[in-house]
Amino acid sequence: MYFYPANLFVMKHRPFLYLAFFFLLHTAALPAQKNALRPEPFSSDALQYRTFRYFWETADTVLWQIPDRWPTLTFSSIAATGFGLSSYIVGAERGWVSRDAAAQRVLNTLLALRNLPQGPEVEGVAGYKGFYYHFLDLERARRYKDVELSTIDSGLLLAGILSCQSYFDRDTPAERQIREIADFIYRRVEWDWMLNANHRLSMGWRPERGFITSEWYGYNEAMILYVLALGSPTHPIPADAWKAWCDTYYWDAFEGSEHLQFGPLFGHQYSHVWIDFRGIQDEYMRKKGIDYFENSRRATLANRAYCVRNPGKFKGYSDKIWGLTASDGPMDWLYKNDPDRRCTAAWNGGFEAYNARGVASDYLRDDGVIVPTAAGGSVPFAPEACLPALQAMWETYYDSLVGPYGFKDAFSPAFTACGMLPEGWFDVDYLGIDQGPILLMLENHRSGLLWEVMKKNPYIAAGLKKAGFKGGWVDKTPGPDRLSGGAGRQFGHNIEVIKDPTAIFERHKYRSLPYRLLRPQSLPALTTEKERFPLVVFLHGSGERGNDNEAQLKNGVLGFTEGDRLQRYPCYLLAPQCPAGQSWAPLDWRKMGMQFGENPTEAGADLLALINQTIRDNPNIDTTRIYLAGLSMGGFGVFDLLQRYPERFAAAIPLCSGGDPGLVSRYKNLPVWVFHGQNDPVVPVDYSRKVVAALEAAGGKVRYTEFATLGHAIWQETFYDDDVLSWLFEQKK
């Protein structure tokens, strides 16, 4: 095989070679790009070898960082450097480089990482408190522009560092130094600095603005991050952080299989690069009866099943060619090559540039772009599906998709750009964070190399045990206290870390309804098992319908979590999402006025069943204090529930809606506080006035607030008003 030289040292120090190199890059960007390499039959060995060369040849030879992408050079990626460090182990084991050469490369990289400046400054540093910035510039490996100090990318870098610490175990000067520097870099990370009051890690920090609002929750690639933070002997996070992480998982069925949902496949792959999850379980997976490896297998096969079904009717999808995950996309090509927007079909076709493509029950991001690392990074989970996919892509698109470093990042036969790309769009770049999973997961499938190496690492074992993992190989390792001394310590959170208020809501699905649930147990310092708490059921409006299990938290719900309200008004808060095309109440008020149908809607029936199930599942819910709140369509749903099941509820707050005046006698004894905006252009204010008048005439316990200057969007003025919440939580049956 022949490989183009791609060493950054050449570009920095030999300008005449750089000109020739630039010519190669320029010609590579032409639409009719063809592979200059002699065709080579597909094999795992051939693909691994070429992919390994990406890390071995493109690394900067001064500071040894891996570029984010090649041949388009922008900045280095600390996550790609983490994958690169582990790739050198594979190269040594496969005999592509000597062990001594691999050790020297690792040592050079670790020395550079250790010596890069850290500090709170805006520029001129590579990291702070042991973490590293997401991207580093190519000249000095310093913070690139205003990127964030990244927890997950630092975690992926550290996973690569610890793999080298455990692999290079010989008593030679170089290998001893590798182990010592790896230990220093890992131990200096202040994980507890990133922990917020939700007991979860922030996604990052910027010196200009402080901590990022987003935090790591739900199921995704951050398992490795939490394991590293839990296992730290110097700055660990408490064990309950793992439960706080798991509390936001979303288990659902997709394409015929039940598993933890996360759309892009990289979220099911990254942690598995370094940790063998086969046969080990935390509390969550013990209850589900599977392990995280099986979960990733199901997600992989569901991704494939979706592509085979191909609801978007994209060209090129088949039972052999499939795979959706984060990747480049064709829109960047369009911006460069059709600035006048002559190809309207392409501009209006829903295609995107770099994006987190993927599918799940609550996620859909598919624009006809297939990504080789989707199958490549999942080979151990489902080799019977993934290896044929890699072979089919290699053989079908070899000339355009395969290059000196294996698969280019992505391609789309569907994107022809009005004939400018008759064979479709093929990326010109390789991406380090997509190359890594292909190489390393193929190796795990073939030999289990990375898995076996990391089983020897005491910090990984400590983190898994502290998270509650049992079974398999974990049971054969010493406990966390023996391994890392202080790893069992319980530190508090950093009060300066911003909380993401949506992160305290668990994600679930019941029948047709996705729903979010906040439990008072999410505030461990506040509650005990013997306490009883009210349940608030919050119903959203028509604009938040769908299945993303996110939109229903947009308007009003977070008023219950504002400031110290959860401490003052601890409660269960249930926020279901109405499916598209359905409604909470059986009426078409635009045609029929306030005449409710005799039978509940499907969503309404499922909603009552969900409320009852939530009460059964949480015995410390105070059944004398179950409250309803809803806005617009949700307000109509509140009135519908009140007139059908008045015995279930203690009070209600409907906004911008109305009820059937003829049915108020059924719930006249329940406290109801109605709100409406006088200038509401969506739901006439008269609907609230009429039901309030009917309640008053029946001797009902009704209060009415009408905002004289406001329209439909009055939830901010209502649910963020402390007097409203105080009134609600005083009510009791």
Explain how this protein is built.
The chain is built from 28 helices and 27 strands. With 733 residues, it is an alpha+beta fold. The chain has three domains: 145 residues, no CATH class; 157 residues, Glycoside hydrolase 144 (GH144) (Glycosyltransferase), CATH 1.50.10.140; 223 residues, Alpha/Beta hydrolase fold, catalytic domain (Rossmann fold, 3-Layer(aba) Sandwich), CATH 3.40.50.1820. The strands form nine sheets. The chain has an eight-stranded mixed sheet. The longest helix has 18 residues. The chain is globular, with a radius of gyration of 28 Å. The chain starts with 7 loop residues before the first helix and ends with a helix. The N terminus is likely disordered.
Key traits:
single chain, 733 residues, Glycosyltransferase, 3 domains, 13% strand, globular, disordered N terminus
